[in-house]
Give the backbone structure.
Amino acid sequence: MNYGENLPKYSVSCRGVGVPDCDFEIKSASSEQELFELLKTHARMGHNMESIPPDKAEAAKKAMTVQ
């Protein structure tokens, strides 16, 4: 038995959030909270942003998929 194989996976991409020139994707975060922590790190390191702007955070929530 593989514990965790049936847990939801949260995914989102920068393109899905409205950043057309970035190929960054998160494909298997274990929670919405983990997904947003990963996005914050990417925003800081990949886009030199101190934080995720509210409009992009809202876009990420809308673009996020759960499988």
